[in-house]
Amino acid sequence: MNCNNSIVNFFYNKKIDNANVLIFSLCLLIFPFLLLISTLFVKNKYAQYIFILYFSFLFGYAFDYTNVDMDSNHYASFFLNLNEVDFYAFFEHHVLGVFQHPDALDLFQPVTSYLVAQLFPGNIPVLFAFFSCIFVTFQMMTYSLINSEHKRNFTTLILLLSFAFAINPLTNINGIRFWLACWVYVYFTTKYLNDKSNKYFFLSCLAFLVHWSFVLTLPILLLFKYWERLSVKVILSLFIISLTTHSFVVDVFFAIGDFLPNTFQLKFDYYSSQVLDTGNRVISLPVIIGTKGFTFYLLSVFIYLSIFKKVRFISNHRLLRFWKFTAFFVSVFLFFSVLSSAARFLSIAELLIVMFVFMFFQEKQNNGVPFYILMFVPFLILRVLVQGTLLPFFMTEEMLSPLFFVFN
Hints:
The chain has about 400 residues and is mainly α. It has one domain. It is about 70% helix and about 0% strand. It is built from 24 helices and no strands. It has helices at about 5-10, 20-30, 35-40, 45-60, 70-80, 85-95, 110-120, 125-145, 155-165, 175-195, 200-205, 220-225, 230-245, 250-255, 260-270, 285-310, 310-315, 315-335, 340-345, 345-360, 370-375, 375-385, 395-400, 405. Helix 9 packs parallel to helix 22 (about 375-385), helix 13 runs parallel beside helix 18 and helix 18 runs antiparallel to helix 20 (about 345-360). The longest helix is centred in the N-terminal third of the chain and has 24 residues, at about 125-145. The chain starts with a helix and ends with a helix. Residues about 1-15, about 245-255, about 275-285 and about 405-408 have low confidence and may be disordered.
């Protein structure tokens, strides 16, 4: 059988025979980084997911968790300590005792670690491989909500690259709890906005079980049905006000902590005390543009579409609903963006805006690429370069070939 023909069949055919799977798997085993590139050309969505899942498993397996200042090192230490914890003690403390202890504020990371520890005791690389696969699964499911019914083109490529490298990339498994919660929240919230199903509303609310701080998003979901009744002009006015008026909420945010349960006090006091202060830091202009320029550009595009192109999405109920939620979410967390911990939620705002922009574009009748899509490219490239999100894909032997750890 010709290897090239098998690869072509694997890329394009919906029915794939075992010989094609075997031959292509051998090719990937020798040159795994080709997997990341090849997914851009894969037409078979099942093959595409298999390739990306394979690569994400490899990336997680090779992930560097040795920096003691990083969350990943704490996950690794917690995982190793599970060898000395029996099931009943773990279940009582981390499941039944969730929200009752400062180190048991959510479920995903402890439960996943415990399950992996039972199957692969002491094998930290396998733990991060599982984290990576779960992370990428929600990432790809969110991407498919926008791109599932549309042809592959330049705009969808920009969307995929934004998801993969610029906003919430795979390298964020270093802080798997918060960053996975972002994908869980965005995916189920988008499903809820599209389908109006209480099931997805409930699942979106459960994002706080992945990271406790997502309790802050519950009021947004609960109050959205009232916000949705407001007119476009009122929502747009409130959104613009939020861009310039936010410092006064810091004192209010501090006061909220007095009304929370005691189990949240330590965490809340720690995060609420982290007010952004860049006065003594020297930051180069490229870094500022790379980190903040992408965000500012997205906000600018969102305002531009909201003011000058609103006629096009007002008539589309699904798109209008998504726009209203995006404006609501962005407005709320722009208020709290002076807090470094709350500023992380602006990544969700970025995701929502990017999704809205591409949903808006896909509703257009012509095939041309508008300038606001083209301008994504320089900001996207600079964001990726400044964040260095591509470097981990090149810096380990496993990324060059998994044969390294098979035969090493």
